[in-house]
Design a protein that fits this description.
Number of strands: 9
Strand content: 35-45%
Mean pLDDT: 85
Largest sheet: 5 strands, mixed
Number of helices: 0
Low-confidence stretches: none
Radius of gyration: 19 Å
Oligomer: single chain
């Protein structure tokens, strides 16, 4: 990105300010962020998360993604191998004022959350037409 629209925090273990009321691991989802002329798109990998288990909050320019993945085995099933952990996902981003925060949209498909962050009109590059006078 030429301009800093988002400020990504370094990957690290989530440090909650308060005691966790729910036990279990908290994961930091991997993300890809890319930019076009009109928007910034953020893809977050949330494997096994149902769309109704995702919470996206925007408070004072701070975008927070929280999600929870539940154990998906049936009662009559038992693990032969378990490499995939259940728990919660949590990640935060600081948005600049160049993002139109009222128009942010989100979709979830195949374990990937897509957040579209439109740029405000004044931040979009444009060409000025020169008219013959």
């Amino acid at each position: 990105m030429a301009d800093k629209e988002l400020q990504v925090r370094e990957k690290q273990q989530v440090q909650a300010e308060a005691e966790q009321t729910k036990p279990g691991p908290v994961f930091v989802p991997a993300v890809d962020i890319f930019e076009s002329e009109n928007e910034i798109t953020l893809l977050a990998d949330l494997p096994g998360v149902a769309s109704d288990s995702i919470s996206i909050d925007l408070t004072e320019g701070q975008l927070t993604i929280s999600a929870e993945v539940e154990d998906q085995t049936a009662d009559n099933e038992r693990f032969l191998l378990k490499e995939y952990e259940t728990g919660r996902f949590h990640r935060e981003f600081s948005l600049s004022d160049r993002i139109d925060q009222s128009k942010i949209s989100a979709t979830m498909k195949d374990g990937v959350l897509r957040l579209v962050l439109p740029k405000v009109e004044k931040a979009r590059p444009r060409k000025i037409e020169v008219k013959a006078g």
